[in-house]
Specification:
Length: 282
Amino acid sequence: MIPVTLVWALLSSSAAAPATPSAAATAAAGASADHDSDEAEVMNAVLPPLTLAPDDAADKEELPAWKGTLTIGGKYTGGNTNTRSITSQLDAERRAEMDRWTFKAWWNYGQEKTNGSNRITTRNEGGSIKYDYFVTKKLYYLAIAGAEADSLADLDLRYYGGAGAGYQFLEGDKTSFLGELALTYFAEKFSTGTDNSTVALRVAYKLSHKLSDTTKIEQDLTLFPSVEKIDDFYGKLDTRLRADLTKSMFAQLQNIIDYDNTPAPGAKRLDDQILLTVGWSF
């Protein structure tokens, strides 16, 4: 008879020892692992690892776009009197949440030939650029510069530059209205007479109002009263009536009034233009 103590010792040693896999099982597992590794290397060589590209549309910040209008008009006649004229104007604006850029440029030219004589009837051009930085939703600081010339008024160059503040009273799809006040350096160079320069205020407003779904009226008023000479004063009033013809094309009737209280010798103080043009918005 086997002693009880010996049986108990054999059972205890069998339970405590870990199960050792057979040589065949170990070889099979190793072969399977090698096969999976080789297959993965082949797949990576044929097809590179798949990586998820970032969402460009989500990560890319949308920048504000320039919006504006380009208008062109002209006239041609032949016969006893030959006339030709062209007028053009570009207005552009880029509005962001905190700032705004405004750009304006124009060029007008007219010529008349009668009985062999050639006479220029219109020749003026100019432009301006303005930057607004909004400190609140309606109040903003501004910097502005501009220049223009008019040969028939003997004005070789009128230029100005300065800074100030403005207030956006209304800014909507139907009505927009703002007012501005700035301190500028204002100068005029004439073909004849004495040149003029002064420190002047710039007082301005801009109004835009939709009369209907297809018609709109716009008006810009800019005044430059001198703070040094009470009689030195310049102002411009630009009024436009616009009617949409298509989604991007429109017809425009424009009236521009220029007033210079100290013009060149022999030149008139008041210039009045009425223009009928077609335009495109962008």
